[in-house]
Structure formats: structure tokens, C-alpha cells
User: Which sequence fits this backbone?
């Protein structure tokens, strides 16, 4: 299971590795999605072992923040759990930035509840009704007579936008919902509240929360890869045009079998077949 820092809203890690008495000229700055954060951190750590001397900085904050940083030319790589929007592409191009997408993993968005909640499965429609505030009590969906506490990601999150795409279909989330800024914050909130429901990327599941089936289908690496699970998606790293130097080398590593093995180890879905040694969770 990940440490607390890895699940924080904004997690920053900087590697300043010295060769002799001077810092290397190569550097990589990565900003964006908290969903992609564990993949970015773990692959960075492995990349640095093989490529000492490169200065690297990694921070979360949300997919929208990462893409904004790419547009503003304040990051080399924007991590995102959603596809870049047309208006973002146009804004980037107006500033001389050419966003280029690299799919680095697949993910499944999973509704989660407190482990003591006896509900096992919800349909997409029931999830929508709950998040709109139309279904307000767990007894309406086969649970105990308890008021539902709705917890959601904030609007800068790619996961929030994916949830809108898969579940809400442009319907508004109830104003009573608690809007939190990271997957880790959602895990903590649900683990401490028997009434709560939230949704997470598959890599953030742990024993402190209970995943629900959706339309009778259990989210797994297999059902996400096959798209049988109804809320599967790509995870991205965006760069400005064709990268060079350390950035190109790092992207290539993440997409390599060695990098994809790390993706699988972190609990996400690799896009290439790899021999997995088991999840850490």
C-alpha cells in the first residue's frame, strides 16, 4: 500500500543527483493528475537509478492543472487522466505549444463505500441518481436505512470529468456533495464514514474501502483492459511536440515492457503484456 505522502493532494518530489561536483544539465518537470501520480513516481525512481545525474521534479494538483502548466510552458510533461480538450489544444497552439499525447496505462474508475456497507452492486443509473441527490438513502438501493454522504473529486480533476462522461452525462452533482482534491483524500474520507460513497482510480484501492460492482461487473485489470467494465479509460502523459533528450528517454522507458511492469505493480493496467510479480496493495 502506498505511503501517506504518495496519496496527498499535491505531492512534490525532486531528485537532485550529483555527478562529481556539478549538477547535470538534463532536467524533467512533471505536473498534473493525482491518479497518474503513483505511476509517475515509481517510474521516475526506476528511471533515475538507470540514469543518474538528471534533475527531476514531480507534483500533483489535477489533470487540468497539469495541462495548464503545459500550455504555460512551465512543465515538460503533463500527466492527465482525461483527454485534452479542443479548447485547450487551441489555447496551447496560440502560445506555440503542440500537445502530443502518450498513453501510458489504462485505468478503471470504481465506486467505493465503507467496508461495513452491505451494498455490493450499483447500476450506472443508480450511481447517477445518487450523485444528483435523487437517491438519498442506502435503503433505496438495498442497503441499510442510512443517509448517503456523496463525496466527489473537484472539478479540476480528470477523474471528475471522466465520471461526468461515464455516469453523470452532463447532469449536475448535488450541491451537498463533498468535493475533495485527490484520490487519497477520498480514500481517507470513505474509510472513516459508514454513510459515504466516492469513486477512485483502480490503483488507489486498498482494504480500508470496499469497491462496488457496476452493472454486475467487477473492476479488475482484465475487465478494464477488455473494456468489459463500463468505466475504463486511458491515462496520459502530454508533451510539447516530439520530445528530445531526457524527456524522450523517460517517456520511452514508461512505455517499455520494464516501465509497463511498474504500471502493473502499482495496480494500474499496462497497455502491453508484461509478466507481473503481483500488486503492492
Assistant:
Amino acid at each position: 500500500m502506498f505511503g501517506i505522502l504518495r496519496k496527498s493532494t499535491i505531492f512534490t518530489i525532486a531528485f537532485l543527483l550529483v555527478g562529481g561536483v556539478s549538477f547535470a544539465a538534463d532536467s524533467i518537470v512533471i505536473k498534473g493528475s493525482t491518479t497518474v501520480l503513483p505511476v509517475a513516481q515509481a517510474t521516475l525512481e526506476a528511471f533515475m537509478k538507470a540514469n543518474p545525474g538528471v534533475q527531476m521534479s514531480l507534483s500533483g494538483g489535477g489533470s487540468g492543472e497539469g495541462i495548464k502548466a503545459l500550455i504555460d510552458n512551465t512543465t515538460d510533461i503533463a500527466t492527465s487522466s482525461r483527454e485534452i480538450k479542443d479548447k485547450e489544444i487551441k489555447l496551447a497552439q496560440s502560445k506555440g505549444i503542440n500537445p502530443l499525447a502518450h498513453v501510458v496505462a489504462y485505468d478503471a474508475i470504481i465506486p467505493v463505500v465503507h467496508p461495513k456497507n452491505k451494498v455490493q452492486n450499483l447500476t450506472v443509473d443508480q450511481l447517477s441518481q445518487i450523485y444528483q441527490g435523487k437517491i438519498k438513502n442506502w435503503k433505496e438501493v438495498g442497503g441499510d436505512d442510512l443517509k448517503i454522504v456523496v463525496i466527489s473529486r473537484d472539478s479540476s480533476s480528470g477523474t471528475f470529468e471522466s465520471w461526468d462522461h461515464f455516469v453523470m452525462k452532463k447532469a449536475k452533482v448535488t450541491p451537498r456533495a463533498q468535493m475533495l482534491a485527490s484520490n487519497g483524500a477520498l480514500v481517507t474520507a470513505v474509510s472513516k464514514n459508514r454513510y459515504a460513497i466516492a469513486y477512485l482510480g483502480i490503483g488507489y484501492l486498498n482494504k480500508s474501502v470496499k469497491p462496488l460492482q457496476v452493472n454486475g461487473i467487477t473492476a479488475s485489470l482484465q475487465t478494464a483492459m477488455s473494456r468489459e467494465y463500463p468505466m475504463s479509460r486511458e491515462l496520459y502523459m502530454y508533451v510539447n511536440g516530439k520530445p528530445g533528450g531526457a524527456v524522450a528517454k523517460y517517456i520511452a522507458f514508461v512505455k517499455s515492457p520494464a516501465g509497463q511492469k511498474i504500471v502493473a505493480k502499482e495496480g494500474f493496467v499496462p497497455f502491453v503484456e508484461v509478466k507481473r510479480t503481483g500488486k503492492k496493495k
In short: The first strand starts at residue 13 and ends at 15. Confidence is low (pLDDT under 50) at residues 1-25, 276-281.
